[in-house]
Each structure stands twice: as C-alpha cells, then as structure tokens.
Amino acid sequence: MSDKQPIFEFHDVHVEVEGTEVVKGVSLSIMPGEIHAIMGRNGSGKSSLSNALMGHPLYKITKGTVRLNGQDLLEMEPDERSRAGLFLAFQYPLAIPGVTVANFMRAAIQSHRGKEADMSDFRKWFTTAMNELEIERSFASRYLNEGFSGGEKKRLEILQMSMLRPKLALLDETDSGLDIDALKTVSEGINRFHNDTNALLLVTHYQRLLNYVKPHKVHVMMAGQFVQSGGPELALKLEESGYEWLEKQVAEKLEV
Questions:
Q1: How many domains does the chain contain in total?
Q2: pLDDT tens-digit profile of 51-73?
C-alpha cells in the first residue's frame, strides 16, 4: 500500500455567489504528479469553484473542507493560499496599468520568498522563463496585460506559474482565446512546469488542451456537481459526442 498523501483535496464543497448556491457539494483528491481536468458547459460551476478555492471574496464556500499538503486553506486569505503553494491562472486575466510585467513578477516572487530574500538571480531567471514561452523581452517593461492579446495574457499567466512554482496549479480555461500556435507554446510551458512533486487541475470546455497536456483523470461538472469521472477517454467522448448524452443519462438517474 502506498503511503503517499494527496497534495490537494477538497470534500463536500458548496459555493454561493450573492446568495445563490452555484457549487453543490463536490469532492476531489489529487496525488503528487497527477493532472486532473474538470470539463463542462458554460454555467456548470467550474470557474466558480476555481475562484472559491483561491479565496475570491465574491465566491463564498459555505460548507466543506479544502487542504493543500494537509494545510487547511479555508483558514487562509488569498495571499496566504498563494504562499502556501496554490496558484490560479485566470480565465480573463486583468490589466494592471502602471505596473510593469517585470516589477509585478519581482514583487510576487519577493512576497513568496520573504522581504529579506536574495533576488540577485531574478533577472536571469525571468529572462530564461520568458524565452521558454517565446515572450518578447520588450514585454518586461510593458504594463501587465494592458493592450495584450488573449494569447499574450495566457502566456503571462504561465510565466507567473513557472516562476512561482506552486504545489497545485489551477488553470481556469487557459486554452480560451488561443490559436493553435499559442496553445502549443502555452501547453509546452505547462508540461515543463509539471513534475512528480506538484499537480495540475485544468478547467476547460474542450478536448484540445488535453491533446497537449495529458490528464490522468477527467471529471464532468453539471449544475454545480460532478456527475461523472473517468480517464482521458471520457474527454475524447465529450469531444466526439458533446454533453447531451451525459445530460440525458444524469436526468434518467434523477428520475429513478
């Protein structure tokens, strides 16, 4: 029997947004080195769950437990969750006028390392990470996400992930708005980050990201609940047949 413990787990999580329950008791356990994917239509609760796990104040977890390496995340503020090793790549990254990409990254890393941390390696590390993601050096002096295309914003999200080195990276529809070349570059960055000591939780509508970042397990979310889980073949079936067959199957179970 393996003595490995989950790197990330949540149990019976319920989420409310402005008094409406949008996530209705979901549970998941992710082991070190695993890649899990949550799939579902718009409005199924995927992004609400992601935001709630990260601690967004509009998404209130009303019931359940969430642990990262055994630590209770619900006792932590969002910045504390980040320092504990949780990372969220946003579906729609915000622009921050007046803050350059380089200064933003330096501040984020220093916050993780502590005020007295040696940052002498930052420039070399930052430049290497940008080169790997094919980000032009001129972006370092541009304001974060201001005037960036969708693909450029998503590359910047993966740049942040690769430099912050979280234990669990939660990627909320990172493939949204990417053309095929950008998708390949972003996927390469995700795969370069992933190893046996961390884990990924991908949130997506489509199979296409999963062609490049191979999941161990796939979970389908409908109406705020996980209705089916399986291996990569489940994502392939959804790509081929859509969600209607599963919606019909779920409806039949509810009628029984």
A1: 1
A2: 999 999 999 999 999 999 999 99
What is the pTM for the complete model shown? 0.92
Domain coverage including residue 84: 8-94+167-255
| 96 close to 144: Cβ distance less than 8 angstroms | yes
Note whether residue 130 is domain-resident. Answer: no
Please check whether residue 79 lies inside any domain of the structure.
yes
Lookup: tokens for 42: 């718009």
For residues 70 and 80, what is the distance between their CA atoms, to the nearest angstrom?
15
Helix boundaries (H) for 61-211: 78-84, 101-113, 122-132, 150-164, 180-193
212-250 tens-digit pLDDT? 999 999 999 999 999 999 999 999 999 888 899 898 888
CATH of the domain at 217: 3.40.50.300
Grouping H, G, I as helix, E, B as strand and the rest as coil, residue 82 is helix
| Contact (Cβ atoms closer than 8 angstroms) between residue 41 and residue 243 | yes
Q: Sign of the CA dihedral 139, 142, 145, 146? A: negative
Which of 246, 248, 219 is closest to 36 using CA atoms? 219
